[in-house]
Amino acid sequence: MIVFDKVSKHIGDKSILSNQSFTIENGEFFVLVGPSGSGKTTTLKMINRLIEATDGKIIIDGVQQNQLDLRQMRLSMGYVLQQIALFPNLTVAENIAVIPTMKGWHKAKIEERTRDLLNKVNLPAADYMNRYPKDLSGGEQQRVGIVRAIIGEPKVLLMDEPFSALDPITRQQLQKLTKRVHEALKMTVVFVTHDVQEAVLLADRIAVLDQGNMLQIASPKEILSHPANAYVQELFEGVQHD
Question: What string of H, E and C letters represents the secondary structure of 11-79?
Fold first, then answer.
């Protein structure tokens, strides 16, 4: 469980996040949505201390975040960015092996798990393990990025607008893939997007941000049927939920 307790982030006179308190449950698919500059990515990066809170406490599984070993905490979290950031000089298999190697896994286990996960994301291991990032499409690189993030069996997967640079068909494929991975591995996913339809498709709960404030945290169904205010209503106007 991840708890934000009266957390704020200020840069100079500018408030990025304002005295926010909320909880992300274990195993939940929690989506942060809102316009550019609303505080989504800042909130996400606070979870693994890429950004430090100015005020308040962040508590992870009952322990205050700043009391956790930073390296171990980050190794317990996967991270997928819009900018895929694969190492260009490493093969697909070598890219995927980075975190499990740091965790001390045996090579045989890493290879077995790499093959299994590549096959699960529709990248046949026999064809892709020895390719380099330059030989992959954007969608294929992002699939490798997801495998790299989850192979170490993280408790939490952080995803910062991972599909926004992809074409619509590839984006839909990876949305479905991410949902399947979440359901199969039962990990906590915190996902940032500005796309409200994507938020509704993926989320167990959605947190709507605007100017550093959480306007509503609720299930997609609840947000669509009972928006907290006129802003939330307008933001989700016309969005469908199955």
Answer: ECCEEEEEEEEEEECCCCEEEEECCCCCCHHHHHHHHCCCCCCCEEEEEECCEEHHHCCHHHHHHCEEE
Residue 119 phi, psi dihedral angles, 5° rounding: -65, -35
Measuring CA to CA, which residue among 21, 45, 34, 13 is closest to residue 206? 34
Q: Give the burial class of 184: count Cβ atoms within 10 A of its Cβ; 0-12 exposed, 13-18 middle, 19 or more buried.
A: exposed
In sequence order, what are the residues at sequence separation of 6 or more whose Cβ sits closer than 8 angstroms to the Cβ of residue 88?
132, 133, 134
Question: What is the secondary structure of 80-103 as a DSSP string?
Answer: EESS----TTS-HHHHHTHHHHHT
> What pTM was computed for the model?
0.91
> Helices (H) and strands (E) in the chain — how many of each?
11, 10
Q: Give tens-digit pLDDT for 18-31.
A: 999 999 999 999 99
**Interatomic CA distance for residues 186 and 62, integer angstroms:** 19
Per-residue tokens: 160:
């910062």
The burial class, CB within 10 Å (0-12 / 13-18 / 19+), for 175 is buried
Residue 114, exposed/middle/buried by CB under 10 A (0-12, 13-18, 19+)? buried
Distance CA 41, CA 155 (A): 19
